Amino acid sequence: MAEIYKSDGLGFIKLPACMHGLRKKGREWGQKRVFNVRAVTVEKRSLRPFVEAVGTLKANEEVVVSSEIDGILKRITVTEGSKVSRGALIAKVSETDYRLEVKRAEASLRQTEASLANAKLEYERKDALYKEQLVTRQQFDDITARLALAAGDLERAKAALALAREKLSKTNIYAPIAGSVKEKRTTAGDYVTNGTPLVYLIQTDPIKLSFSVIERDAGKIKVGQDVQFRVDSCPDQEFRGVMKNIYPHLEEKTRSLQAEAVVANPQQLLKPGLFARVILFTGPAKDLVVVPITALLYEGTSVKVFIAENGQAREKQVKTGQKHSEFM
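Above: the chain's sequence. Below: its structure in token form.
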């Protein structure tokens, strides 16, 4: 393995003469510069190619729970920050008017059923008499029309009862998803109408990581790739997720491609709105030769290192790849 000289901040050259010789030959060394350096061995490591990005955490789902009927809000069972399960009761609207409407619809249905039964009996009598030519065609047509109208009234009564029962059921308002209450917009005693927002629910387990990559890297990302990121609220912890969605277009102003990953969040350490530093792995691990980034010397567009040969430092131009922590 070759040795690379790592700079201590002063330079890179290491001369072969010992320091004792410098004391004895001050004039000889007067025009030469000596630097303290440390030689390190070039390493080969198995590393995965990646793309760096910045992103923001968002709720996986966000729902505005609204009232579907008009009435006085009898009670609301949640507060900001409280967790709710899917199907849990969130609020209740006063049901008195809707219960009475159900009773009225039930009575109307019984009345139409009786009317239909009576029309059927009369139709049967008129039908028998018409066959014996004891009633006129007009009389038979009248009872036929009355029977059809009675049947139609029955269908309308059944629909009215179903609608009344549906409205009564909507006096109880349930959570459509499992999550947490982001905001409560009403309190008990408020008069609500159809469409009035009651609470905002968000789902944070799993949580969504939204980030963008530059145009140059857009072709490298695919659904299913591994994502790794850090947030300032947990600086010593790495979080991992999986790429779920890639937008079909680039943002025209920024020339960047938006993507989303899904991250498990059972302990609720991650909150919507947090800033994230993202690493998206774009392929399997490869064996790469790496050196400390402090061993690199940049001169214009070229990158150089110093290689130890026979106790002396020899300059060599190199081509660098991606930065991996403190190595490149």
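Residues 7-30 have pLDDT under 50 and may be disordered.
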